[in-house]
């Protein structure tokens, strides 16, 4: 199976500050892992700049322009208490959105069977008109809407296994019956959303909240009993993954206590579902993960598994 990896050096140029957990070293760790011989067959492409038109399918154009106008020419500027922009942040955010759209193009035209976007800043907390939680634009939602606008898809699913609930993706998808969002996440926890009762206007949202210290069994049960049956029932034409690796036991920001092999298991399970409903078509986007060693290992396992089918 051919797997495409999209990235750009500009995504390292987003620098929220020396003590900020969403550091350039996160992406460096992932890219270093993907240089191993195991990944020789990975197709590597440079992520292009996403356009304002692409991003404005999700975010109001005036908001997109306001975020880009807020990027400082020197120093740093807080877009919210957690979301800090530096001079390189605008280019990085545009490359992340561009990666999502280009990955969708490649998978839907058959140029690749699946794809992984090794980009930052992450995106799943960004709401329609609000940057938050380290996220400027909601890149995975931009990719989903690109699939519908440019390729005529009607049903696109996003599955999110980041430890934090993707409140932004949920809010963007809430009233859209043809978009499906499912998430496992620590709860109660930042950003405060993601209760099981949050189902979307058309029953198109599935939240499987997990208590702190839950571990592998509860995580796998949530997927097996809640998310995967609903995903198959939705019958998406494309599955997109918000691939956060901060539910790992070593991560300093949370405490779900997953291990390396849980990421192999969940990637395999999502690939099996994709094979059943959408010809194996998957686009995965890097979200969180703040222990550098665990992030590098688990992102590598995720990509190796994508390459294995």
Q: Taking Cα atoms only, what radius of gyration do you get, to the nearest Å? A: 17 Å
CATH topology, by name, is Arginase, Chain A
What is the CATH superfamily?
Histone deacetylase domain
Helical residue percent?
Answer: 25-40%
Number of helices: 9
Can you give a write-up of this model?
By secondary structure, the protein is α/β, with parallel strands linked by helices. The chain has a single domain (3-308), classed as Arginase, Chain A (3-Layer(aba) Sandwich). 38% of the residues lie in helices and 16% in strands. The termini are close together.
Q: What does the secondary structure layout of this molecule look like, with pairings?
A:
Blueprint: E1 3-7, H1 24-33, E2 43-46, H2 52-55, H3 61-69, E3 77-80, E4 83-85, H4 89-109, E5 114-117, H5 139-151, E6 156-160, H6 167-173, E7 179-186, E8 205-210, H7 216-234, E9 238-243, H8 260-277, E10 282-286, H9 292-308
Parallel strand pairs: 1-2, 1-5, 5-10, 6-7, 6-9, 7-8, 9-10
Antiparallel strand pairs: 3-4
Helix pairs in contact: 1-9, 4-5, 7-8, 8-9
Considering the chains and any ligands shown, give keywords for the structure.
single chain, 309 residues, alpha/beta, Arginase, Chain A, 10 strands
Summarize the structure.
This protein is 38% helix and 16% strand.
């Amino acid at each position: 199976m051919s797997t495409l990896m999209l990235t750009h050096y500009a995504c390292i140029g987003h620098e929220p500050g020396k003590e900020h957990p969403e550091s350039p070293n996160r992406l460096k760790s992932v890219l270093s892992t993907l240089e191993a011989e195991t990944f020789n067959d990975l197709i590597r492409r440079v992520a292009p700049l996403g356009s304002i038109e692409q991003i404005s399918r999700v975010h109001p154009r005036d908001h997109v322009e306001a975020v880009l106008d807020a990027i400082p020419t020197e120093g740093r500027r807080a877009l919210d208490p957690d979301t800090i922009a530096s001079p390189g942040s605008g280019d990085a955010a545009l490359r992340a959105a561009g990666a999502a759209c280009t990955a969708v193009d490649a998978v839907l035209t058959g140029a690749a069977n699946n794809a992984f976007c090794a980009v930052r800043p992450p995106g799943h907390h960004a709401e329609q008109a609000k940057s938050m939680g380290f996220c400027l634009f909601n890149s995975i939602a931009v990719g989903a809407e690109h699939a519908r606008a440019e390729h005529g898809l009607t049903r696109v699913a996003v599955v999110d296994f980041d430890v934090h609930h993707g409140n932004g993706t949920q809010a963007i998808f809430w009233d859209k019956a043809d978009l499906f969002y499912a998430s496992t996440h620590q709860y109660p926890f930042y950003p405060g959303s993601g209760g099981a009762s949050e189902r979307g206007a058309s029953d198109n949202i599935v939240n499987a909240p997990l208590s702190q210290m839950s571990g592998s069994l509860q995580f796998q049960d949530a997927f097996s009993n809640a998310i995967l049956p609903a995903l198959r029932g939705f019958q998406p034409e494309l599955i997109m993954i918000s691939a956060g690796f901060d539910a790992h036991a070593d991560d300093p920001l949370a405490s779900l206590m997953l291990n390396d092999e849980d990421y192999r298991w969940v990637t395999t399970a999502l690939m099996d579902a994709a094979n059943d409903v959408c010809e194996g078509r998957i686009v995965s986007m890097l979200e969180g993960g703040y222990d550098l060693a665990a992030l590098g290992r688990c992102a590598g396992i995720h990509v190796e598994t994508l390459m294995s089918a």
